[in-house]
Design brief:
Layout lengths: L61 H27 L7 H27 L5 H14 L3 H8 L2
Helix pairs in contact: 1-2, 1-3, 2-3
Length: 154
Amino acid sequence: MTPAPPAHDGAAASPPDPAVDHDDDDALSWGDAADATHVDAAHNPVRVRARRESDVEQPLGSGALVGMGVFGGVYLLYTVAWLVSASLLTITGTGVAGIVSEVMRVLAIMAPAFWFAATLWLGQGSRNRTRFTWLLIGALVLIPWPFIMTRSFG
């Protein structure tokens, strides 16, 4: 069953209002060409710099993001291991030697976190491969040997 057409009451549509300008071409005009502030794109070409392959604004891919998370977890574990190892050491120095020893202990604990943050911050404009290379170098250099040796063989 098809619906019935709408009822037409016989009244005509309202005539156009003569006070309103119905020229549609004016809507597509952005100003007078004789105006001093008028800019025509055809006469003012825009120079665009060529983008590099990996631009800074390009977000990390999912694999790179997971890799950064894995390295972040490794560096967090390294920080905890250095904290545990450094808390077991006793400081025997007094005076300047004691102060230097305490500063070195704090730096040893914070080194993995500093390395991770510095690699991400200084490598912002670098390719992912470069950042991962530096993260891998840091993971090898900052292995908490005191923690591993005392827990494995002690």
